[in-house]
From TrEMBL:
GO-annotated molecular function: CDP-diacylglycerol-serine O-phosphatidyltransferase activity; L-serine-phosphatidylethanolamine phosphatidyltransferase activity
Acidic residues compositional bias, start-end: 287-309
Keyword Ligase in record: no
Protein topology in the membrane: Multi-pass membrane protein
Stated name of the protein: CDP-diacylglycerol--serine O-phosphatidyltransferase
Biased composition (Basic and acidic residues): 321-332
Pfam families, per the entry: PSS
Keyword Transferase appears in the UniProt entry: yes
This protein's UniProt keywords: Endoplasmic reticulum, Lipid biosynthesis, Lipid metabolism, Membrane, Phospholipid biosynthesis, Phospholipid metabolism, Transferase, Transmembrane, Transmembrane helix
Catalysed reactions, semicolon-separated: a CDP-1,2-diacyl-sn-glycerol + L-serine = a 1,2-diacyl-sn-glycero-3-phospho-L-serine + CMP + H(+)
Recorded family membership: Belongs to the CDP-alcohol phosphatidyltransferase class-I family.
One Gene Ontology term from the biological process aspect of the record: phosphatidylserine biosynthetic process
GO cellular component, one term: endoplasmic reticulum membrane
Length: 519
């Protein structure tokens, strides 16, 4: 930081950024000039068609390198986030990618119809997507699977002695579905991002209720009871959450062994974004020497004699310390050579993973203490977070239905990966925002959390505009009544809770006033 409070990078990073920029400009120049030479060599009768194809290719290449150029700028000059591992530049690139995703959604909003959006945008990825919804047989080489055609658990007509699993063929087909493992991995990632059992369970159960709520619009949500509540909630969701929470606990515990705190306060949790390895080693050495001097301090005030004795014995102590250090290092080398190659490989691999995932020494693996039942305000803040997560899930299904994008298409995968990376930073900043001691009215929401909310709003606008006329089925009365009842109970409970909190606060204020008056 300079005198004005502006973040300043050191000279080494500046030199590296300039060198990287020079190399990147050379790569761009090579690509641009090479493409220009290729266009000049066009010959033959089909010049117009060839030029049209070449123009399309040049447009794609130009958009790609424009995207890469913005990522390079974000990596080199972007603002650092709260996240540190595996490298601060990775999270700067995530922020840059999400900014471009937000601009992409804004562009989609201003397309008049979904057909224009397919023709102008999605045709760059896959020409078949331009005709989505007009001819299902032409469009969908991948047939989206329905999960509620046969909800029997036991299928006796398919039993045979060769395979016992065929007696439960419906369950077997669901488990062997290509998205079963993706479901587990998804909840593993959500556990790493949210890091709280209460919110994760609420998220898991509410999403199943969302499927029941919107299955009259999306056939993909129509599932068997054992698929929704047994395989999804109790197997996939719980399995992914358990592994994710175990990983979070392991990272936090291991990081404590590395010499940092594991609390969740802002003072203890400020992960730095610079490499202070050498500085921290110097500070640690200084603290060790200071602690040793404090232990040797004479409470009777005889410091001079202790200092003289320490100066006399210092050469001998240093010699003994060097011999002991040498013996320990020799012993470690001998133990290292006695290890088997396989154990050495596992040890090195584990150490490398820890170094790239765990925070640097002096920082911590951030533990979230959401405390949704602390106050009515905190409950609403946690509900808002769960609502954002549910919107992320639902938008994925609505967007692929509107634009006719098959589930295994690369566009769906890119969106999920991008949202997962951004969610880690956004949730971290949102947690810091709502737990700020100054309160949410004086605290400032982080840029990545703001960006995530803006992107979610843009996705909703895209669905609202381009989904007009696609979702015509009426709401089931049972669904409407249930959600009205739940909303009434929640609102009533929050009002009663707030009145009780206010009553307790007034009683405490009166008690403090009386005690002060008696004194």
């Amino acid at each position: 930081m300079d005198a004005n409070g502006v973040s300043v990078r050191n000279n080494t990073n500046n030199r590296k950024s300039l060198s990287f920029l020079f190399v990147y400009v050379l790569v761009l120049a090579y690509q641009a000039l090479n493409d220009d030479i290729g266009q000049r060599n066009i010959r033959g009768n089909d010049v117009s068609e060839t030029r049209t194809a070449s123009s399309s290719s040049s447009t794609k290449k130009g958009l790609f390198f424009a995207y890469v150029s913005y990522l390079v700028y974000s990596f080199l000059q972007g603002e650092d986030t709260h996240m540190f591992r595996p490298h601060p530049g990775v999270w700067r690139c995530v922020h840059g990618s999400f900014v471009l995703y937000l601009l992409f959604l804004v562009f989609l909003v201003f397309q008049e119809t979904k057909e224009q959006a397919r023709a102008r945008v999605f045709a760059f990825w896959d020409s078949n997507l331009m005709f989505a919804g007009e001819d299902d047989e032409k469009m969908f080489p991948y047939e989206e699977r329905t999960y509620a055609t046969d909800c029997r658990v036991f299928t006796p007509e398919q039993c045979n002695l060769a395979s016992f699993g065929s007696c439960f063929q419906n369950v077997k087909n669901t488990i062997l579905d290509e998205f079963f493992l993706a479901h587990v991995l998804g909840w593993f990632g959500k556990a790493l991002a949210i890091r709280d059992w209460h919110l994760l369970w609420a998220y898991s159960i509410l999403f199943e209720l969302m499927e029941v709520t919107f299955r009259h619009w999306l056939k993909n949500f129509d599932e068997c009871w054992w698929d929704s509540w047994v395989l999804d909630v109790l197997v996939c969701n719980f399995g992914g959450m358990w592994v994710g929470m175990r990983a979070t606990k392991y990272f936090a515990t291991t990081n404590v062994g590395r010499g940092s705190y594991s609390g969740s306060s802002r003072e203890e949790s400020s992960e730095g974004v610079e490499d202070h390895g050498f500085t921290e080693r110097v500070i640690d050495d200084f603290e060790e020497s200071s602690s040793s001097e404090e232990d040797e301090y004479d409470e009777d005030g005889q410091e001079g004699e202790d200092d003289e004795n320490e100066m006399k014995n210092k050469p001998a102590a240093a010699a003994r310390s060097s011999e002991r250090t040498k013996d320990e290092s020799d012993g470690k080398k001998n133990r290292h050579h006695r290890r088997r190659p396989s154990s050495n490989f596992v040890r090195v691999a584990r150490k490398s993973i820890e170094n790239y995932i765990l925070p640097e020494k002096g920082h911590n693996w951030y533990r979230y203490e959401w405390q949704p039942f602390k106050t009515p305000g905190r409950f609403i803040q946690c509900v808002f977070l769960i609502g954002m997560c549910l919107s992320f899930e639902l938008n994925a299904f609505f967007l692929k239905f509107i634009y006719g994008i098959p589930p295994p298409h690369i566009l769906n995968t890119l969106r999920l990966v991008l949202w997962f990376a951004q969610a880690n930073i956004a949730i971290r900043e949102y947690y810091v925002f709502i737990t700020d001691e100054r309160g949410i009215w004086k605290a400032q929401l982080g840029a990545n959390a703001w960006l995530a909310i803006a992107a979610m709003a843009m996705e909703f606008l895209v669905i609202l505009k381009h989904g007009d006329g696609l979702f015509t089925a009426k709401w089931p009365k049972a669904v409407v009544r249930c959600w009205l009842a739940v909303s009434a109970v929640i609102v009533g409970g929050l009002i009663v809770w707030q009145f009780k909190k206010e009553k307790e606060r007034r009683v405490m204020t009166k008690t403090k006033y009386k005690n002060k008056k008696n004194i």
